[in-house]
């Protein structure tokens, strides 16, 4: 049932990367349970602007769960208490009237806070630039069945490709490890014939870049997989370990 | 190769391989320990201990075992320190409410430190006395090994006397449970780290790992407890 709820928000405010930052408490009234979490923040910001205060800075773009831009650590979970959704897909019906909601930025040395709830996720782009691509000209669109690909591989590759690079895995990890992201980005290509050719080089370069950027070492707790909005499996991490080790041993 | 061992996956490989090696050792250790439960005044156990002490294969493996422990401990600490740095100092005010993550997997260092503390005590209890200082309880006894009367160290007497004290038994039981928890994550995790896992094998390895971990952990605890309860006097 659609209804309106009143909430207390504890929002992380930080002016600049160097600023110490802290939580501010805001009251919001008459929030429709049919609205999304980012719409809640829109309402809050409108309220702040009307009061002559600085609005809360937060990342967002497509608002339909595919761009990977929204982040936010909400009440103990990256992307909030619902499973396999991004923050923009989180509905306010998941909260009750009178609830207090804690809203924090991703916390990891690899993702420094830029302002308020926005963190710098450039590190992910740098890892992709190190090898998360296929560097051959594929020409025109090939005939659909010209290269046979086993259905299982195609499925697993597609599952890996559903990673939107939002960084929830790093935010959830007690080690600040980016292995789920890197393994998904390596697997989506390594499982297909076009990407397999460069699989060894890709694994080595992406892992080396990941280590350089100061991400932690995976200890297989599996928290990333639970909190991933796309349900990426840590089986991809085993595959990356396998590929990386065999590539290194062949050097 | 050198760059392999400096990389995150390379360092974890050392953790995984040393862990697998130590897990094989634990099985052999438990097998020999199980002979403590044979009610023959320790003759079978003493014969087995004599075999282990005089076997050239064991002479080679013993230093390897020490290296295995050292690598596992040193790299474990090293990786944890790196991970703390990577995680950063800021913590979530709303805590961590992620469900479905085992407690053991998030507390491997604490469990490891507990086991290390136990290891120091354990080595002082037995290894130091058997290999270095000696102990009057260890005076030779004669057992029949394949019909041949042989003079062997009375390791059973030392163990039996050690497990006569309640606090020792309590420490061993707690350490056994700690070991089970450590292994319940360590077993499957080591396979995942060396790349031997996927969605199907993860389920198998988790089940196998839990069976192994609790078998070994409860096994060691139970032997100490039974020695205290039924093998005294």
Greatest interface and its participating residue counts: A-B, 53 and 45 residues
CATH class of the largest domain in chain A: Mainly Alpha
Please give the largest β-sheet of chain A.
5 strands, mixed
User: What's the alpha carbon Rg of chain A, rounded to whole Å?
Assistant: 20 Å
Mean pLDDT of chain A: 96
The CATH topology assignment of the largest domain in chain A is: Fumarate Reductase Iron-sulfur Protein, Chain B, domain 2
The low-confidence parts of chain A are none
CATH structural architecture of the largest domain in chain A: Orthogonal Bundle
pLDDT averaged residue by residue of chain B? 95
The CATH H-level homologous superfamily of chain B:
Fumarate reductase/succinate dehydrogenase, transmembrane subunit
Figure out the total of helices of chain A: 9
CATH architecture of chain B: Up-down Bundle
In percent terms, what proportion of residues of chain A is strand?
Answer: 5-15%
What is the count of helical runs of chain B? 9
* Count of folded domains of chain A: 2
- Helices and strands of chain A, in N-to-C order? EEHEEEEEHHHHHHHH
Tag the structure with descriptive keywords.
heterodimer; A: 251 residues; alpha+beta; Ubiquitin-like (UB roll); Fumarate Reductase Iron-sulfur Protein, Chain B, domain 2; 2 domains; five-stranded mixed β-sheet; two-stranded antiparallel ribbon; 9 helices; 7 strands; elongated; B: 233 residues; mainly alpha; 3 helical TM bundles of succinate and fumarate reductases
């Amino acid at each position: 049932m659609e209804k309106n709820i009143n909430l207390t928000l504890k929002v992380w405010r930080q002016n600049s990367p160097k600023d110490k930052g802290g939580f501010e408490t805001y009251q919001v009234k008459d929030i429709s349970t049919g609205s999304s979490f980012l719409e809640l923040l829109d309402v809050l910001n409108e309220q702040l602007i009307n009061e002559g205060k600085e609005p809360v800075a937060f990342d967002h773009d497509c608002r339909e769960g595919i761009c990977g831009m929204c982040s936010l650590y909400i009440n103990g979970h990256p992307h909030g208490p619902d499973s396999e959704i991004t923050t923009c897909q989180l509905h306010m019906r998941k909260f009750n009237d009178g609830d207090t909601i804690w809203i924090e930025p991703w916390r990891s040395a690899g993702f420094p806070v830029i302002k308020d709830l926005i963190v710098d996720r450039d590190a992910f782009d740098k890892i992709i630039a190190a090898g998360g691509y296929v560097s051959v000209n594929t020409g025109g669109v090939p005939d659909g069945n010209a290269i046979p690909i086993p259905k299982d591989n195609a499925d697993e590759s597609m599952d890996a490709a559903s990673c939107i690079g939002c960084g929830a895995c790093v935010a959830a990890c007690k080690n600040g490890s980016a292995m789920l992201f890197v393994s998904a980005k390596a697997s989506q290509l390594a499982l297909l014939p076009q990407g397999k050719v460069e699989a060894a080089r890709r694994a080595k370069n992406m892992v080396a870049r990941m280590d350089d950027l100061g991400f932690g070492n995976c200890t297989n707790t599996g928290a990333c997989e639970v909190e991933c909005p796309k349900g990426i499996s840590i089986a991809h991490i085993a595959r990356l370990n396998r590929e990386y080790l065999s590539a290194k041993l062949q050097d | 190769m050198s760059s392999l061992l400096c990389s995150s996956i390379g360092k974890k490989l050392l953790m995984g391989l040393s862990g697998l090696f130590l897990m094989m050792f634990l099985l052999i250790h438990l097998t020999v320990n199980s002979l403590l439960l044979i009610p023959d005044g320790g003759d079978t156990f003493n014969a087995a201990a004599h075999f282990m002490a005089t076997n050239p294969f064991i002479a080679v493996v013993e230093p390897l075992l020490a290296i295995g422990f050292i690598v596992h401990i040193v790299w474990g600490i090293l990786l944890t320190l790196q991970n703390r740095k990577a995680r950063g100092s800021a913590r979530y005010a709303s805590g961590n409410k992620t469900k479905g993550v085992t407690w053991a997997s998030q507390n491997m260092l604490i469990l490891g430190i507990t086991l290390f503390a136990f290891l120091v005590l354990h080595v002082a209890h037995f290894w130091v006395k058997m290999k270095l200082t000696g102990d009057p309880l260890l005076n030779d006894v004669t057992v029949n090994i394949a019909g041949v009367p042989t003079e062997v160290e009375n390791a059973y007497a030392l163990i039996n006397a050690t497990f006569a004290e309640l606090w020792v038994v309590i420490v061993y039981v707690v350490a056994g449970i700690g070991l089970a928890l450590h292994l319940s994550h360590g077993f499957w995790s080591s396979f995942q780290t060396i790349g031997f896992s996927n969605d199907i094998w993860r389920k198998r390895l988790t089940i196998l790992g839990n069976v192994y971990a609790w078998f070994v952990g409860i096994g060691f605890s139970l032997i100490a407890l039974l020695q205290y309860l039924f093998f005294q006097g």
